[in-house]
Amino acid sequence: MQEFFASEKPTLGVEWELALIDPDTRDLVPRAAEVVDMVRAKHPDIHLELEFLANTIELVTPVCDTVPEAVEHLQYALDQVREAASELGLKLWGSGSHPFSDFRTQPTSSKGRYKEIIARTQYWGNQMLIWGIHTHVGVKDKERVWPIINALLIHYPHLLALTASSPGWDGIDTGYASNRTMLYQQLPTAGLPYQFESWQQWESYMDDQAISGVINHTGSMHFDIRPAGKWGTIEVRICDATSTLEELAAVVALTHCLVVYYDRMLDRGEQLPCLQDWHVAENKWRAARYGMDAIIIVDRDTNERLVTDDVREWVERLSPLAKELGCFDELQLVLKIIDRGAGYQRQRALFEQHGEWFPAVDATIAELEEGF
Questions:
Q1: What's the rounded Cα separation, in Å, for the pair 250 and 14?
Q2: How far apart are CA 172 and CA 154, in angstroms?
Q3: Structure confidence by residue, pLDDT tens digits, 237-253
């Protein structure tokens, strides 16, 4: 049985994965445990987690009611993590992946289940030099979870295009806006969720995974969107990690509004929209490949539209709800991302200008320090 401790309100929680960089070599540094220990010693109220890689620190908010509240917690944690990293002569890195670091030189953290994942997945598991944003939104009834998840899958390309920030890999330009997306789906429990029609179907599926031993190896299913029953939330894991807190705030606001928008449709007795599985998969690929220039499928009749045009329309549609939820200003930052360009566009432009990734790494580090 899959428990779901439903949330009375559409509460919010955010997890932001950041990595440590040597400012001279611009390479990743596996010293996250030291930084976390330093911060915890001075600020035990800050919630930090060690992640899959020993170079990675995850900033975790408490349960929040609004996006500004979550952003405030993240800013406070970011300031303390930056201070500790600076004492060690290190910088912070926020992006979907690193453009040239060699995965063979980057150890995983000491958590036992991470070592088991590596033992099981071998080559593909070893390559996971990737970082993302996970947004939790509270849901009041488990029977609402899968209809809302299936509707959210329509917006996969919107969320990914806005945050795509991983164009480089192993020293080359991959041609993708989010190479992280392509890498992560290689893990056997990662990628798109099945579009379950009920909580009962989800429970049956998870029973099968337990019987077959899959969960024993991995701890959970790592779908791009999934239920988080312990917290009573839907967890959206689509986004590349961003290099600014403002960009994070924008996509968290969009995610929060979308979940509440679809939840209220259910309140009105309306059926939620969904796309065919093959359209969802195609949209995911198009956003990973083309980012802001993706032409996406927007309905079951296979009508298509430029993703940025569709995003602009959704921002307008959701703005009244955003005012009610206290995240109107943050939602408008989505338009700023479109006008300025996503992380992959900024990194790629510098790579094309200089013929190497160092300037892109430096600029991305500076963005995390200076803001949007």
A1: 12
A2: 31
A3: 999 999 999 999 999 99
